[in-house]
Please model this.
Amino acid sequence: MTKLVYAFHEGQKDMKELLGGKGANLAEMTRIGLPVPEGFTISTKACSDYYDHDGQISEALTDQVMTALKELESKTGKTLGGSDQPLLVSVRSGSVFSMPGMMDTVLNLGMNDETVDVVAGLTDNARFAYDSYRRFIQMFSDVVLGVESFFFEQELSKFRREKGYESDPELSAADWKEVIEAYKKIVKRHTKTPFPQDPKEQLFLSIKAVFDSWNNQRAVIYRNLNDIPHHLGTAVNIQSMVFGNMGDDSGTGVAFTRDPSTGEAKLYGEYLINAQGEDVVAGIRTPQPIASLQRDLPDVFEQFIDTANRLEAHYGDMQDIEFTVENRKLFILQTRNGKRTAQAAIRIAVEMVHEGVIDKEQALLRVDPEQLDQLLHPRIDHSDDVEKLTKGLPASPGAATGQVVFDPDEAELLKGKGQNVILVRTETTPDDIHGIVAAEAVVTSRGGMTSHAAVVARGMGKACICGCGEMQIDMKAKSFRVGNTTVNHLDTITIDGGTGEVMLGEATMIPPQLSDEFETILQWADETRRLGIRTNADTPQDAQKAVEFGAEGIGLCRTEHMFMDPERVPVVREMILADDLDNRQKALDRLLPMQVEDFTGIFRAMGPRPVTIRLLDPPLHEFLPDKEELLVGITRMEIQDPGAPELAEKKKILKSVRLLDEFNPMLGHRGCRLGMVYPEIYEMQSRAIFKATAALSEEGVEVQPEVMIPLVGHVQELKAMRKVVEDAAIAVTEETGVSFTYTVGTMIEIPRAALTADAIAEEADFFSFGTNDLTQTTFGYSRDDAESKFLQHYLDHGVLEHNPFAVLDTEGVGKLVETGVTLGRKTKPGLKTGICGEHGGEKRSIAFCHETGLDYVSCSPYRVPLARLAAAQAKVNESSRTVNV
Ligand code: ADP
Ligand code: MG
Ligand code: MG
Model:
């Protein structure tokens, strides 16, 4: 018989796949002797079985649960539904990867009309017993029976109003008893059956509900966002209850062993006295900072500090810990590696190396390269006069400006229209997740640093402010007030998640300041990685920025943007419209000095680093006016002013536009096919490159130009174009008397080029895989059409796992890259290879490039730090793989 259920003492931390993260860690904490309430875990295997059996709990599982329950009962000396010592349990979901707040938990299970009285008698605390029972009814109804919490909240507010109470602690045992009767009526009304009284039935219904919650909408969205596979399933933990709501000697809280926002090595957390479970996370009451626990319950505080330190040392990483205090006794209910901002991830990793907790290689793996992006973005210039409105808790750093919206659906809608919005809520719940995704930032008026909004925003690297107590939100009027100021729906505000400040209007932004730890970790990355990191840059400014971020060269300098400059467009058009070579040459002669200036600027910015310049690539019609617009203009002119002198000119342009019109420009007359038909264009560009090279060499500036021919499919193309480049170099040397070195290579972006790379390598000094076009030509997709028409459908239906334009398709496109590298190096063993294109800045694609033995990746300037780290991780993972073999 397959084992489906494990007591806590049977598991340990490496069994996450089977027991889920929560279950594995509960087992581990039990194993090392921490005070964890007894319990058992129903494995993810049981969840898969459940789904394989069309959502039925099998007999085998039922039996094993009953056996585990018996064992739990004998250990605790309590019985589920017992009239002597009733056992109360929590039913908690827990998957392999933590999905905070995404799935459901039921507390106080085992309560019914009889056990509640027994509990009241045993604890001599009737108020506590009835409070626990009503919580159970509410949670169970919400999670298991599908009766929304809202109805219960509404009932409770009504009750408080009628009795003249301000807050829940004012309710007596008798009051709660009345509330419970009203609650039961709500259940009856919505489900047509009475609230289930049999604890075993309650238990199995809850297990089923947790299994089902794996596929609720918010959990699915969360998994999609975080690339968590859908087939993993969730485990279910059944754990005997401990109570933080027993009075002022009890409480519940959450703490991180280090600050998850800044990374500072200081215990960071919050708690509520006389409260249960989710009260802290839900943000319903704003909790106390952990430090004041020292005052409230000093001995518990001390024990907690010890436990926190012990857990961090044991796991070798920052921990996120849930605890409950029942009558001054501490219990630990959960631990996991804490989610953190990029800033915190880096600081913690670097400091843990200094503390000797982890080594540099582990530190490199602790930071998600994608997260680095958060740090490279602008901050608010506080010296500027922005009107400060209010201040809340700095829950997740970052600056953002946007229009105020209160509704997550609207946030999503407006984002879809390209507007930047800031989501303002009293508190957020897991159902708001799509709105948080869409918003630039989130602000809540209630809740603490560990509230749902804070945890989720930090995970996404989004700015967030919580517990903005002065903010009075009026959902009906769609506005909020701070003192006398009213901010309406769609007004613009700016927030600083690092300080907690909310400001009116738009603030000025200044460049980011990178921490010493940031530099340190990237330095470690540089020492570790094998791949070179270059950048795609078309201007001296971009080149400069990339060098600051650590780029070691330019992997792709596109020249077409230089042609798009408004002052140049007329000259470029003259070149295109020229009737003969003579006229074309005249236009090219005027473009030459401009291009020399372009390349000089870029070479200067890059100094001795290699610069790959790609000769003109797009089809020529891209430089001409739009056909439709021209036609409309001409027609209008013919009617209004037929004698106008521009009319003839416009007609001439229209004729050329028509001539250059193509059925499929992506596969048309572009790339080296232009250079083949109009070699004078590539000749001019090559001249410009070499003139700049020669002039700078004269000045003593070292320059390494690499001339790249785009869209080669046949070696003859490269051979011919190489000749054009070489002739230009000879000519420039003759004119200037300066000799210089350079290389000529090609982009590999047509399958035929990859397949005949051995022949092409005869004429190439380097290959640069243009993976954007190579993806288009391999799949036969035009990117724009694919992304706007059918790609989403493919992703939704699992035809493709990732958008191949974002994550390199290693099976298809990658095979061509491998083939290209292998064949190319067969001809020229030292052939330099790299990729340019967006994949050069994507971590999985970078890992592939590392494994394939490329020399470098090239990406946009802002992604250079990410690429440095991802390349180092690829190297570290490679050595860990060899160890495993
Ligand atoms: P989540 O994954 O959403 O945090 P949990 O399963 O951790 O859900 O539980 C929700 C809350 O209930 C947490 O605050 C947790 O500490 C508390 N809780 C869970 N089980 C127990 C228990 N056996 N006794 C007391 N509190 C519990
Ligand atoms: Mg939890
Ligand atoms: Mg291309």
Remarks:
- The chain has a mean pLDDT of 92.
- DSSP finds 35 helices and 33 strands in the chain.
